[in-house]
Hints:
single chain; two-stranded antiparallel sheet; alpha+beta; about 30% helix; two-stranded antiparallel ribbon
Amino acid sequence: MSELxxxxxxxxxxxxxxxxxxxxxxxxxxxVDSECSVEDLQKRVSKFIxxxxxxxxxxxxxxxxxxxxxxxxxxxxxxxxxxxxPPSTIKHGW
Length: 94
């Protein structure tokens, strides 16, 4: 998720400032150092996603004891022809 690579630091400061949750980088994500339930953490991460206007592309999911930010799978939409050819009308002149 290349769009979220630069969001790790803002997420960390958001959790620290608003909820007093200390975080530390761990592998490919963040680790929360306080006693917070996974459901509460998911709600807080969802709030961060909403405030960053990323909620139309991403959502927070609980995966075992982790909260992961997932990307919505977009369906490929067939492009409709704006100017379709009208059906031919045959006129008989006999």
